[in-house]
């Protein structure tokens, strides 16, 4: 008898209480009938298509709800809003975690390119993938919200003597402390501001330890060794290949950075004496920036030709009466000159341009499409200065990327890789040449002398070239932490090891594991990958060169502005419109004609400055 029939009869006996085959009865003759067993049907292409359609609908709804909650939290920091954002994030994490596991049933099934790519991108969509355990998912969301809140509400408070010797407590937020770092020329004041901001981050350490453990557990559940491997898998190449690509690009630009570092260190030693040794790493508090990641605020110490007419955009903005709104309008005007559409009216109604007096906000500039349907918003506490004018162009680059791809499936609503998103606006900012500034009426005269060029290149390099090793090391630190190469009791030591090794910058005072200096940089508690910024600093020059070629520019690369070039805009727009629907080499080729990232445009752009630095550094011992 077929086993399937026998099991059926036995089951019937159990249900009826009867014995179909009594022991003392003769065995009846039963004709054997073979019943074929159908193999279970596997998922079909149609099943996968239906899954992808439902995924797009459900994921869009969840991401919109999460984005709305995050926007509310970022523009009004309260415990209630933090909890709401955490709850929305937890729902996304639960859904994505579930769907990532369901996607496995389509492995090996030959699918249309678009469907397969969406399924692959889903697997990579969570920066901190949540484990399948509901309690751990909730814990992870709360940790992320708390870390972000600690940073956003951070203040340094100190007791000072007022009039008549009365002691009062004075508290300063990051913006106020950053002003000290930018403007003070007193080492003691700089050191107090530097140390003061880092008092906010030690409470983050136990939270960050738990974040790493839970996030890594989630990463392992979906097939990665740790979160670092997951992050490095987002670049259409193997994780190890991506790490090697980062090193290759750094190798192209490192000689220029070393020359700049050598020159700046000598100038600071001349200014501050023993505070800045003539050899070795530079103390982090004297470089004009809270994290020593850009050095533009100490330009006065290294200005090549002080007697040359210098371009002071900040002073020009003040002289022309620019306010926050006008600065953003000026950024928009550059993009519309390329043939792009104006920003939607809702952008002007819903954005935050000034720090409000009645609530705490995260002032760190960020661009949003809150509802994933061209609901563009800028969140930024704008200062009327050159740095923020450049930042506005950077953020609007994100907005115009959103604007070009918002009609795509939600999983394709991203840049070719995240370095593209960060590089677009900065590429536009490279076109903010003196000629352009005169054309828009911001300055009245343009100096085209060789000395003026060197001055301008020095100012630009202090921001863009100085940044490169910092852009590299932030994620190098996290990759090592995620991989377990660095234990929690060595977090701070490893941070400063990398800063000295790659950047040639050291802590100005002794730091211990009672500190958590990585947490004083927004992107660590904010859980924002940082390799994108390094890549953006490479790509922006590659983008700039390609757009200049499209615009028909002739002459040195640093003199090019694509303002008003519809040809450059058309090539840029074609790349933007792909979103994340194709591997990034295909998107890059649309604009540049090559499928490989390349830093040679940086070397070409800064050729005049490199020659100047090499001449100035003769006789000095460079390196650290």
Round the mean pLDDT to the nearest integer and report it: 91
What is the 3D form?
globular
Sheet with most strands: strand arrangement: 1-2
Q: How many β-strand stretches?
A: 6
CATH architecture of the largest domain: Orthogonal Bundle
Compute the separation of the termini in Å. 84 Å
Low-confidence stretches: 1-30
CATH top-level class of the largest domain: Mainly Alpha
CATH topology of the largest domain, what is it called? Answer: Neurolysin, domain 3
Please work out how many helical segments DSSP would assign: 24
Output the structural class. Answer: mainly alpha
Give helix and strand order, one letter per element, not per position: HHHHHEEHHHHHEHHHHEEHHHHHEHHHHH
Rg computed from alpha carbons, rounded to a whole number of angstroms? 29 Å
Provide keyphrases for this structure.
6 strands, Helix Hairpins, 4% strand, two-stranded antiparallel ribbon, 624 residues, single chain, 4 domains, 56% helix, mainly alpha
Q: Can you characterise this structure?
A:
The chain has 24 helices and six strands. Helix 3 packs across helix 5 (134-152). The chain is mostly helical and 624 residues long. The chain is 56% helix and 4% strand. The longest helix has 34 residues, at 239-272. The protein starts with a helix and ends in an 8-residue tail after the last helix. The protein folds into four domains: 1-37, no CATH class; 45-150 and 204-223; 155-197, Orthogonal Bundle (Helix Hairpins); 245-616, Neurolysin, domain 3, CATH 1.10.1370.30. A two-stranded antiparallel sheet has the order 1-2. It has a two-stranded parallel ribbon with strand order 3-6. Strands 4-5 form a two-stranded antiparallel sheet. Mean pLDDT is 91; it is low at 1-30.
